[in-house]
Amino acid sequence: MTEITLNNITFGYNAEMVLNNISLTVKQGEFVVAVGPNGAGKSTLLKIIAGLIEPSAGQVLIDNQSIRTAARQGIIGYVPQHYAQNTAAFPATVEEVVALGLVNANGNLKAKGTKHIIKHMMEMVGIEKLKGRRIGELSGGQQQRVMVARALAGNPRLLLLDEPTSGIDYAASARIHELLGQLNTTLGITIIMVSHDIENAIRFAAKVACINRSLCFFGDSQEFHSTHASMRHLWYYSGYTS
Ligand SMILES: Nc1ncnc2c1ncn2[C@@H]1O[C@H](COP(=O)(O)OP(=O)(O)OP(=O)(O)O)[C@@H](O)[C@H]1O
User: Fold this and answer.
1) Which of 53, 113, 152, 215 is the most exposed place for a label (fewest CB within 10 A)?
2) Mind listing the domains of the chain with CATH numbers?
3) A Pfam family this protein belongs to (predicted)?
4) Average pLDDT of 45-71?
């Protein structure tokens, strides 16, 4: 069971207030997509859920435990924004990058049977044929699959992804979203993903958290799609922020 509760999360970088009093609960096995305009605070919120940033006020609870305890237990897999692109020049093979996901917070290998786990994760995301290739030689979509496999290798119960499809084409984005949908249903992993590709995301994510410094909407993705179309239109086609 992995339930994430945000209680009145507030945060600012120096004087700039970025997140204002955000409260929500993500239940075990839910797939939530966080949407909103540029600079709305989505990445910041994801970093707070991952335990990388301390909120100025409020708390994150994972299964009623503090985020620090959850992070120590290694139950969180986090794929940061632009991570694949940033590591592309790293002279490592796909297999080696996935293996990094088995290194725990203390810098030790997390589990026995590592070769088997790495193979299994590569198969799961469909990159086994690429295992000997340098990460920098792959397409953006292939690199993102490697990053998902790396996060999965740590056997997370909660997967956090920050724009995993940024910079890749619509068809590749659709395939990554589909993969995440499959992982969510087959493994029961709770997923929170920031995405600008709402159309693809809501095909697989049952819930939407719409953030614009505060929480504008949290609920069923189809409801968001039908009732908030005009709001989405404003954001994405005129650069509107409130
Ligand atoms: N490390 C930082 N130091 C200072 N300000 C920051 C930092 N990171 C982000 N910000 C600011 O906080 C605000 C929210 O940024 P954040 O990256 O969380 O938004 P976002 O919703 O993820 O945006 P995008 O969709 O463009 O990625 C922005 O105004 C940004 O400039």
Assistant:
1) 113
2) 1-75+158-242 (3.40.50.300), 85-155 (no CATH)
3) ABC_tran
4) 89
